[in-house]
């Protein structure tokens, strides 16, 4: 029973990774024959400051780290606050839960094109609204300005991914026994003390798994780029 699964893993994962690594050890020109150069390509990328690709590589690493870290921080804050609100006894709780999970249900490609249209400097809804309100004199180049592009993409990624964090945090909150909060309230614990002494410690396993999964998905996401 395990042999077919093993062959699938080898064929779809191990072989492509091994072949890609083998190609990375060669100097290949388009339409030409590859020449084995060992780890020269890695040395040039990582250590050769005079190489153009050195700057491109480390700039990509920096942008990826900022994008991933910013997205994780934003999703964590929004997801935690949303989960705490939805876990409380608020009016129309089921309606707000459904509404909040809509961004997660939308395909990432559709979401990316929607945000691209919203950011458009000619007919985008954001620039149109800001111009009509008199808040800006000229359209903002959200995706063309290097200072704004990363933040614009971050907002779109957080909007699309935060519901997943809310969903996992909410499931974790509902698994915490209410008796713990009741006992803490009797002992005089404030809501902040209950959060840091009960909620956060018991949610740590859920937070760890969510951060790991989201970090992998976010760092590999290309839909918004």
From TrEMBL:
Pfam name, any one: BPD_transp_1
- Would I find Transmembrane helix among this entry's keywords? yes
Subcellular location, record wording: Cell membrane
The protein's name is: Sugar ABC transporter permease
Q: Which residues form the ABC transmembrane type-1 domain?
A: 61-225
Report how it sits in the membrane: Multi-pass membrane protein
Question: InterPro entries, alphabetically?
Answer: MetI-like, MetI-like_sf
**Top-level taxonomic group:** Bacteria
Keyword hit for Acyltransferase: no
Task: List UniProt keywords, sorted A-Z.
Answer: Cell membrane, Membrane, Transmembrane, Transmembrane helix, Transport
Q: Which GO terms describe its cellular component?
A: plasma membrane
Location, primary (coarse class): membrane
Traced from the root, the source organism's taxonomic lineage reads: Bacteria, Pseudomonadati, Thermomicrobiota, Thermomicrobia, Thermomicrobiales
The Gene Ontology biological process terms listed for this entry are:
transmembrane transport
Q: Which residues cross the membrane?
A: 65-86, 98-118, 148-173, 194-217
Q: Which family does it belong to?
A: Belongs to the binding-protein-dependent transport system permease family.
Which PANTHER family does its entry note? BLR7065 PROTEIN, SPERMIDINE_PUTRESCINE TRANSPORT SYSTEM PERMEASE PROTEIN
């Amino acid at each position: 029973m395990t042999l077919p699964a093993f062959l699938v893993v080898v064929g779809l994962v191990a072989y492509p990774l091994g072949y890609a690594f083998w190609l990375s050890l060669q100097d290949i020109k388009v339409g030409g024959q590859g020449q084995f150069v060992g780890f020269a390509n890695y040395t040039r990328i990582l250590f050769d400051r005079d190489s153009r690709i050195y700057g491109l590589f480390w700039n990509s690493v920096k942008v990826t780290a900022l994008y991933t870290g910013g997205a994780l921080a934003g999703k964590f804050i929004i997801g935690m606050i949303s989960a705490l609100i939805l876990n409380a006894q608020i009016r129309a709780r089921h309606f707000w839960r459904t509404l909040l999970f809509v961004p997660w249900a939308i395909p990432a490609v559709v979401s990316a094109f929607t945000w691209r249209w919203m950011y458009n400097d000619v007919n985008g809804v954001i620039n149109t609204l800001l111009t009509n309100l008199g808040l800006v004199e000229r359209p903002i180049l959200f995706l063309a300005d290097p200072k704004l592009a990363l933040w614009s993409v971050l907002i779109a990624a957080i909007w699309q991914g935060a519901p997943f964090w809310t969903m996992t945090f909410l499931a974790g909150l509902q698994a915490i026994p209410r008796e713990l909060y009741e006992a803490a309230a009797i002992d005089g614990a404030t809501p902040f003390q209950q959060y840091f002494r009960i909620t956060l410690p018991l949610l740590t396993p859920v937070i760890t798994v969510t951060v790991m999964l989201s970090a992998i998905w976010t760092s590999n996401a290309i839909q918004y780029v």
